[in-house]
């Protein structure tokens, strides 16, 4: 008698091997057989006939550092087949944390990752000061999926150096020794990496850069050297220029990364998007990463499965939110605002006005609207053609594109959501992203799940990888299903040393998805107010996940939580499957 048997499914095991029809048996949270189980019975059985069976997805770029305090499900990732997340990315997090620095750390996270500060203030319990104590607090809360954490440079600097660290001043020798000791302490307690940020687009709520943005090589090499000495952990960063900002020496960042990885013998993963300032520049960075392997370095450009984009709506930032007449109705709920905006006199006033006051997000709304696309309420399109933009629609209609956007947002008959790609869509095609994904050094990430609550909802990327790339793409070549599954299971788990998961094979952790590929679809994004203190965020659900299994327990059936909370904190790397 097995604990669980999933029968007659199409197994895509995460290795990249061709799919095959098989059963999967599970005992004590571990896969015990993949093949035919014959007359064996299971205490629980799932009929997967006509369904795809995959390993659970491993998302290596999330910002659930605060949400782990209050949300045992870690929505929305759990709705998209994700069974393991890595948090503590981009140098921001909540440990180590001196008591007097709590509000400052919240402001840092709010500014960089757009998570409402009031929600963080109400939701975080602050049962820790040191990083090991933070891991203990995370481990104490049952949850639906596994979580792993990295030591964040920003919190580390502020803890050791106080105001000097927050102001990005260089550390003293004693400061650096103390920071290295705390990274070592974090790794030994179970951290699986160290993270930092160097992009000029990452700013605290005060407008100040993330501590560590301007760190010199001696600091970076000392901290990275701890990973080498301990023989564990990934060095993760968002490099200068990754946010699309213009830089004088675009190859300078990868030069020191290449050197550091070769010296300390640890993998480095860095965010990389195509950007409009240099649409082909990413190819040279990929070539350097590939060449670096020969010199003993291990560089992994971390790429996204779709453009880095914002979703514009009345509940988030939009082109009219700073206009005086709109601000007079901004306090109304969305339905009443839409109704007010349709009044002809108010519409005319708002459209004739200019924004009042500065807005750091104003760059998202240039005069031209050739990169603003209406989102369908039924089937969101993450690769829209140029002729579907508001600018193109306006030209064909002889209308003002801003007026079209206004009416779209004010209507009760549209999704009210506008897709605005910022990075990764320079030529109105995802062919460059496809080329990136196929590169042997590339790793899939950058979902930012849990972050950018009011503008971005890329936690749904695992689902769009399956729907868009493996099934639905019609504006270019697709990608093999087996490749897509491996890219977000075995490959992501292997980079971070989580070698006990990511494959459907005996001895591996029983993290499994059962997916109806015929009905799998992304729903339109929604704006909800379900965070602590009534904070708002974008969420996106999916249809087609028949079941998600974590450590052998069914956590979701047909998109609904079962109440099972088998997830745990992952402490440190894992050597491999459990011998059976």
UniProtKB/TrEMBL annotation:
<dbReference type="InterPro" id="IPR011059">
    <property type="entry name" value="Metal-dep_hydrolase_composite"/>
</dbReference>
<dbReference type="GO" id="GO:0005829">
    <property type="term" value="C:cytosol"/>
</dbReference>
<dbReference type="GO" id="GO:0016812">
    <property type="term" value="F:hydrolase activity, acting on carbon-nitrogen (but not peptide) bonds, in cyclic amides"/>
</dbReference>
<dbReference type="InterPro" id="IPR013108">
    <property type="entry name" value="Amidohydro_3"/>
</dbReference>
<dbReference type="InterPro" id="IPR050378">
    <property type="entry name" value="Metallo-dep_Hydrolases_sf"/>
</dbReference>
<dbReference type="Pfam" id="PF07969">
    <property type="entry name" value="Amidohydro_3"/>
</dbReference>
<dbReference type="InterPro" id="IPR032466">
    <property type="entry name" value="Metal_Hydrolase"/>
</dbReference>
<feature type="domain" description="Amidohydrolase 3">
    <location>
        <begin position="45"/>
        <end position="556"/>
    </location>
</feature>
<protein>
    <submittedName>
        <fullName>Amidohydrolase family protein</fullName>
    </submittedName>
</protein>
């Amino acid at each position: 008698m097995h604990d669980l048997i999933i029968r007659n499914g199409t197994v895509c095991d995460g290795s990249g091997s061709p799919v095959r029809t098989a059963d999967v048996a599970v005992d004590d949270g571990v896969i015990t057989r993949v093949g035919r189980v014959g007359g064996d019975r299971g205490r629980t059985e799932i009929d997967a006939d006509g369904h795809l069976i995959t390993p659970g997805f491993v998302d290596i770029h999330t910002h659930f550092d605060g949400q782990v305090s209050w949300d045992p499900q870690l929505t929305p990732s759990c709705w998209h087949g994700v069974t393991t997340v890595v948090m503590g990315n981009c140098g921001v997090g909540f440990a180590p944390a001196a008591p007097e620095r709590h509000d400052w750390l919240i402001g840092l996270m709010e500014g960089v990752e757009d998570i409402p500060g009031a929600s963080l203030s109400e939701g975080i319990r602050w049962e820790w000061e040191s990083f090991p104590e933070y891991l203990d607090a995370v481990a104490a809360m049952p949850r639906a999926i596994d979580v792993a954490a990295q030591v964040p440079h920003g919190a580390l600097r502020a803890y050791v150096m106080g105001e000097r660290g927050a102001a990005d001043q260089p550390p003293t020798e004693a400061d650096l020794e103390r920071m290295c000791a705390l990274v070592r302490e974090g790794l030994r307690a179970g951290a699986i990496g160290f993270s930092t940020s160097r992009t000029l687009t990452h700013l605290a709520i005060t407008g100040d850069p993330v501590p560590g943005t301007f760190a010199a090589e001696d600091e970076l090499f000392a901290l990275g050297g701890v990973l080498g000495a301990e023989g564990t952990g990934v060095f993760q960063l968002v490099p200068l220029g990754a946010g699309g900002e213009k830089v004088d020496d675009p190859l300078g960042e990868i030069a020191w990364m290449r050197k550091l990885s070769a010296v300390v013998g640890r993998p480095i993963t860095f965010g990389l998007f195509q950007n409009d300032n240099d649409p082909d520049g990413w190819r040279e960075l990929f070539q350097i990463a590939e060449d670096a392997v020969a010199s003993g370095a291990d560089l992994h450009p971390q790429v996204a499965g779709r453009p880095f984009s914002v979703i514009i709506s009345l509940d988030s930032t939009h082109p009219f939110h700073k206009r005086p007449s709109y601000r007079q109705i901004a306090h109304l709920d969305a339905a009443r605002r839409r109704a007010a905006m349709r009044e002809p006199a108010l519409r005319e006033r708002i459209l004739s006005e200019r924004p009042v006051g500065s807005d750091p997000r104003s760059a998202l709304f240039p005069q031209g609207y050739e990169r603003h696309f209406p989102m369908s309420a039924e089937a969101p399109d993450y690769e829209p053609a140029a002729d579907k933009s508001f600018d193109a629609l306006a030209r064909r209609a002889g209308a003002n594109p801003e007026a079209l956007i206004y009416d779209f947002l004010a209507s009760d008959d549209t999704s009210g959501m506008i897709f605005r790609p910022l990075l990764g869509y320079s030529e109105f095609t995802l062919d460059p992203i496809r080329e990136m994904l196929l590169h042997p050094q590339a790793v899939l990430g950058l979902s930012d799940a849990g972050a950018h609550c009011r503008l971005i909802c890329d936690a749904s990327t695992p689902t769009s990888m399956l729907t868009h790339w493996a099934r639905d793409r019609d504006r270019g070549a697709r990608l093999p299903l087996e490749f897509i599954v491996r890219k977000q299971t075995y490959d992501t788990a292997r980079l971070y040393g989580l070698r006990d998961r990511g494959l459907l094979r005996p001895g591996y952790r029983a993290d499994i998805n059962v997916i109806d590929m015929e009905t799998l679809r992304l729903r339109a994004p929604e704006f909800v107010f379900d965070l602590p203190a009534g904070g708002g965020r974008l969420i996106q659900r999916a249809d087609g996940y028949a079941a998600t299994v974590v450590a052998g327990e069914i956590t979701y059936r047909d998109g609904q939580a079962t109440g099972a909370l088998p997830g745990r904190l992952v402490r440190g790397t894992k050597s491999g499957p459990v011998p059976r």
